[in-house]
Specification:
The protein is α/β, with parallel strands linked by helices and 740 residues long. The protein has an 8-stranded mixed sheet, with helices on both faces. Strands 3-2-1-4-5-6 form a 6-stranded parallel sheet, sandwiched between helices.
Length: 740
Amino acid sequence: LYSVLDAGNFFVIPGSPADVWAVEAYSKSHEKYQLRKENGFLKDEIVVVVVGSSFFYNELSWDYAVAMHDVGPLLIKYARRNSVEGSFKFVFLCGNSTDGYNDALQEVASRLGLLEHSVRHYGFNGDVNGVLLMADIVLYGSSQVEQGFPSLIVRAMTFGIPVITPDFPIIKEYVAEGAQVIFFQKDNPEGLSRAFSLFISNGKLSKFARTVASAGRLHAKNMLALDCVTRYARILENVLNFPSDALLPGPISQLQQVSWEWNLFRKEIDLGTGDILNMDEWGTSTSSRNSSVVDLLEEEFTKNITENENRSADQDTISELDWDVLHDIESSEEYERLEMEQLEERMDGTFASWDDIYRNARKSERFKFEANERDEGELERTGQPVCIYEIYSGSGAWPFLHHGSLYRGLALSSAARRLRSDDVDAVSRLHLLNYTHYRDILCEIGGMFSIANKVDNIHKRPWIGFQSWRAAGRKVSLSISAEKVLEETVQETEGDVMYFWAHLDMDGGFTRNNNDVLTFWSMCDILNGGHCRTAFEDAFRQMYGLPSHVEALPPMPEDGGCWSALHGWVMQTPSFLEFIMFSRMFVDSLDALNANSSKVNSCLLSSSELEKKHCYCRVLELLVNVWAYHSGRKMVYLDPLSGSLQEQHPIERRRGFMWMKYFNFTLLKSMDEDLAEAADDGDYPREKWLWPWTGEVHWKGIYEREREERYRQKMDKKRKMKEKMFDRLTKGYRQKTLGG
């Protein structure tokens, strides 16, 4: 461990036969092509395993993000198409297999347009040796310059796998370029592609690759032996003091030992296979088999410590009397603290000069860096008619976010906020987002709920917009020219208009054909596992209390126009609040249906585990289209590149199709007040009622109660003033004696 982390401050003896030992034992009980068959790899496929630094074995770190940047051209070249030159599979060995890293890699693969299953993930909590044995090529993709020779490279070379690695000094010290491994310059994708091409010939491993693998296997077996023996000899040379009549050993420079004494290890390898297989990623055996007096002493010492800890735990059990004593002590300390505060208030104090007060105030302001940044962000947006909130949920989305006066970040998690920015913390504005379950199933619309909650405190502009961080990744975010067109257009716009720039056809890559025309609802079904229409209709029916024989699925036209996606739109702020009013009630109805499902932890919109986590996200992404169409809003598509404007689904063509009666503002407002009254009275329709937690709860009774409370406080203040004046008139006002 020290050889990897800090060889500069410790006397480290590098090198150990443990990795070679483990590989040889593993090879006796496992066969390469049988493992490939069990893991779904074909015999003629070329499997490339990408490994990284041992600093990050237990997490998917920036080290692998850098690796993806370097490996990207390889993935696009070899894993993007079915080629007659061969089939390639890229395996990333990192992190934990249960923490969702495979989903992250698959997301990257889909963005790069790679073939399905061409990229896989295996975690270090699985069979690491098996993954290395299945490989045809091992690529060391780390950007970290380590102090010790990476153990995974040793194991890969021992398995006879050709290795491609950056030209780090520690690696070049032990192996030769072109003989045992192939080097490429760090952070140079073109150099990596050239090195990779040397191992491939006509879609198969080249003869050169097999030669390098064979040489590497022979070299790895005793590669670190000389260095290890030399270091131990140096310790003995500095520790032992020989008597004057002793025959002194030869100097270290004359050591000729260049290999391990494998004949001494052979018996242990044959008998101790189970111990070798239990070696972790640091090359340390995790077996419980003891083989020396040191192990026996350690076991006895650990046993004594455990007994003492158990005995101490029994003695430290807190009784009821102890709690009473602790309470008395705390009460006494609180009393003394209050008494000292009262005494300090009565004591004469020295008043500072105005210069000192001003200096201290300026000093405190300099330390409030974040507050200063937010003030600057507000100043940049002063006078802007519109602000677009970019919604994101993790630090991985930071590179996709925009900067400037037009945009402001909206973080769905407090821990994910960008440093030194004035991003809005959605969790602090809406307590519901503290719960991971609701934050995951609501996704971006949860951030919209937080902005709408007491909107005057955060947004004071006539227009408001939103955009998912995924828009930049899918290349549908606004260009500079389109941003300028949007800012100029909203200043001249009159009436209710919704401008959007990310349309539905770009979200998923689905195409139309002559036999099966994709409509709005069919697209929604595709994006929600085929359950969109049913779930939407049931939620709409429950929201308005419609009987079963009444149609409850709003019709959407097939006029060839575009529909909004990725929450990329701008509208007037009052229209946004009306949309949120509708959305809160719809989400509550959808959640009620999901909660009433017979299956535990089920999702009405999907059956896959990943989609269950984000159950409502895709249907809520399309909800703004239904509301805008049937509420009579003008819908205009803004080309994100050129900035050209084109109206979609003109209002004059909607006549006879719009369900205006269900989207009327007066009806929605009355429904909202009914729900607020029920919440205020505590008359909850079900145990887990979501609606009160998604925003403000207001109705006429609350306003009247607040007005009565203000009036009562005003009258109490007048009464106390009259009593005080009466006391002065009747008893007189007497000034206290000086010094009394």
